[in-house]
């Protein structure tokens, strides 16, 4: 079939990637460490590591895992850590022994942690000290044998604070101790291939039990090379400065910020607390940021912080939003303030994650989620798996080398997620417009049926974002006797005088009748995941 989006590719971008140069992520790691040996790789507050530091420290950690804990190829190791220097050291150590990294949110509840550890059959966990109380609640109901604790001050000469480890965990080893011991051991890196597992990336679990997407070395290498090909005009190897605010345990920051830009020889500035906006802004002020990623709520929050508006954005080359839809009002304001386009990317945990990117160079042209990366095919399908013509909305289905190997120990879920001809069913409703750009209409599960009409909450939220008195909003469907379902809109005010009548009147001007919310609820905060996605289930 023809690919009408290819005409929108930049002239220097091809629709293929050559993966023959790399047999595993170890090749990429060693190439970058050799090429950028003395360059800064990661920084956190006043602490900095060169690529050589990362090489040496991750070697020591890998040697400890291999010799002391007998961790080998294919073993699952959980990493439950925020954006601090220990994360990339632990990550590369896990990769260097051929183990499979299970990324865990440090903010998980005991129930969520127990499910993930048991589902992934994890023996060893590297855990942030403040999260040890959660592990302590369920440790006896898991197969965990080895606990390595990581503190904020673990690899720092400047941070003095430390958190206590829960007393119920009697056998723990600090990350610093593992490095000291591992330094005395030799390391024998295993032979790995593109088919070997690299990550178990658990889906958010917002619609049920969380499933582990099996991402191979080949999946992630493909996505790195696809991204590289697509944005190559914006890469200056060895000179990029990245700010990583999205948690590295999330697939977006893990692949794009942490792995792609390690491959590009960038300095990666880690922000461990995204809610501390002023510290984030102060860090930005001290560095010439060239690449920045975020979610809509982060961009919106920054734009509503006066000190952010005073920053120097002259070095900023590329900005990518993902994780949730980027609202047009936020994107327009971002370009107005920074002079840099806010490019929306789209993907999922199951796709390593990037499928499409909208390298929008014109503010007056709405390009949605843009076009597929090289070697990626997308088709829009109805509920009976029929491919729909251009211009009709249906489920976005994707095929490419970045699509997962399946769900861990869940063949039925894997089968359900794939079409018979090998496309991954994303669960997102999308449309391919006449210009050859894709647009997400909404999540299938979030669609609201009002008197037989399908309404997509994203559309209502995007319109309301244009109201001067609204900071942010979230829309859900609620049961209604007369219409089956009705729209309820939650709003965080920017202007105290804003009333329900103001919002309804605005919506009536901008939206057709059945899309106008039936009720408005003003709240102080909209519940979000740690990545910044609106949690509509909590609003329900």
List keywords for this structure.
540 residues, alpha/beta, Rossmann fold, GMP Synthetase, Chain A, domain 3, 3 domains, 9-stranded mixed beta sheet, 7-stranded mixed beta sheet, 25 strands
Q: What is the percentage of strand-forming residues?
A: 15-25%
Number of helices: 16
- The coarse silhouette is globular
Whole-number tally of structural domains: 3
Please, could you describe this protein's structure?
With 540 residues, the protein is of the alpha/beta class. The chain folds into three domains: 25-192, Rossmann fold (3-Layer(aba) Sandwich), CATH 3.40.50.980; 216-443, 3-Layer(aba) Sandwich (Rossmann fold); 447-539, ANL, C-terminal domain (GMP Synthetase, Chain A, domain 3), CATH 3.30.300.30. A nine-stranded mixed β-sheet has the order 2-1-11-10-12-13-14-15-16. A seven-stranded mixed β-sheet has the order 7-6-5-3-4-8-9. Helix 3 (86-96) links the parallel strand 3 and strand 4. The radius of gyration is 23 Å and the shape is globular. It starts with 24 loop residues before the first helix and ends with a helix. The relative contact order is 0.10.
Write the layout of secondary structure elements.
Elements: H1 25-35, E1 40-44, E2 47-50, H2 51-67, E3 76-80, H3 86-96, E4 100-103, H4 110-120, E5 124-128, H5 132-138, E6 146-150, E7 173-174, H6 175-182, E8 197-202, E9 212-216, H7 217-230, E10 241-244, H8 251-263, E11 267-270, H9 277-285, E12 291-294, H10 296-303, H11 306-309, E13 318-321, H12 328-338, E14 342-347, E15 354-357, E16 371-372, E17 377-381, E18 394-399, H13 411-417, E19 424-432, E20 438-443, E21 448-450, E22 453-455, H14 457-464, E23 470-480, E24 484-493, H15 500-510, E25 519-522, H16 536-539
Parallel strand pairs: 1-11, 3-4, 3-5, 4-8, 5-6, 6-7, 10-11, 10-12, 12-13, 13-14, 24-25
Antiparallel strand pairs: 1-2, 8-9, 14-15, 15-16, 17-18, 18-19, 19-20, 21-22, 23-24
């Amino acid at each position: 079939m023809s690919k009408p989006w290819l005409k929108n590719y930049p002239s220097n971008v091809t629709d293929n990637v050559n993966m023959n140069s790399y047999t595993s992520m170890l090749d990429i790691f060693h190439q970058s460490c050799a090429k950028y040996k003395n360059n800064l790789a990661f920084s956190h507050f006043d602490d900095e590591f060169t690529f050589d530091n990362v090489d040496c420290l991750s070697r020591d950690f890998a040697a400890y895992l291999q010799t002391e804990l007998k961790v080998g190829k294919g073993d699952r190791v959980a990493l439950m850590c925020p954006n601090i220097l220990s994360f990339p050291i632990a990550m590369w150590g896990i990769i260097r022994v051929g183990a499979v990294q299970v990324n865990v949110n440090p903010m998980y509840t005991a129930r969520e942690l127990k499910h993930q550890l048991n589902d992934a059959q994890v023996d060893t966990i590297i855990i942030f000290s403040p999260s040890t109380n959660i592990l302590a609640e369920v440790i006896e109901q898991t197969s965990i044998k080895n606990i390595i604790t990581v503190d904020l001050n673990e690899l720092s000469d400047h941070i003095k604070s430390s958190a206590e480890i829960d007393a119920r965990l009697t056998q723990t080893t600090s990350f610093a101790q593992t490095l000291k011991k591992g330094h005395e051991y030799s390391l024998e890196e295993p032979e790995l291939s593109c088919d070997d597992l690299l990550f178990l990336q658990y889906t958010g679990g917002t619609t049920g039990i969380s499933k582990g997407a099996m991402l191979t070395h080949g999946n992630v290498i493909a996505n790195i090379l696809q991204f590289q090909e697509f944005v190559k005009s914006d890469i200056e190897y060895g000179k990029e400065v990245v700010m990583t605010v999205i948690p590295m345990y999330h697939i977006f920051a893990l692949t794009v910020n942490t792995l792609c830009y390690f491959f590009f020889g960038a300095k990666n500035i880690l922000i461990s607390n995204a809610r501390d906006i002023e510290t984030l802004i102060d860090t930005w002020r001290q560095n010439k940021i060239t690449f920045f990623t975020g979610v809509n709520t982060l961009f919106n929050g920054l734009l509503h912080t006066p000190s952010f508006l005073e920053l120097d954005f002259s070095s900023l080359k590329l900005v990518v939003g993902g994780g949730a839809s980027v609202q047009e009002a936020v994107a327009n304001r971002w370009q107005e303030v920074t002079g840099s386009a806010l490019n929306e990317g789209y993907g999922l945990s199951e796709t390593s994650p990037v499928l499409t990117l909208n390298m929008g160079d014109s503010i007056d042209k709405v390009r949605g989620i843009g076009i597929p990366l090289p070697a990626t095919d997308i088709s829009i399908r109805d509920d009976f798996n029929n491919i729909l013509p251009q211009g009709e909305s249906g489920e976005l289905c994707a095929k490419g080398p970045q699509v997962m190997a399946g769900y861990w120990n869940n063949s039925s879920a894997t089968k359900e997620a794939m079409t018979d001809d090998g496309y991954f069913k994303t669960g997102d409703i999308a449309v391919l417009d006449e210009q050859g750009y894709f647009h997400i209409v909404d999540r299938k599960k979030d669609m609201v049926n009002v008197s037989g009409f399908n309404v997509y909450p994203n559309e209502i939220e995007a319109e309301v974002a244009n109201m001067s008195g609204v900071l942010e909003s979230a829309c859900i469907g609620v049961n209604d006797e007369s219409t089956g379902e009705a729209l309820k809109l939650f709003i965080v005010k920017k202007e105290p005088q804003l009333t329900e009548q103001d919002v309804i009147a605005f919506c009536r001007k901008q939206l057709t009748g059945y899309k106008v919310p039936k009720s408005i609820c003003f709240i102080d905060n909209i519940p979000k995941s740690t990545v910044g996605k609106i949690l509509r289930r909590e609003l329900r």
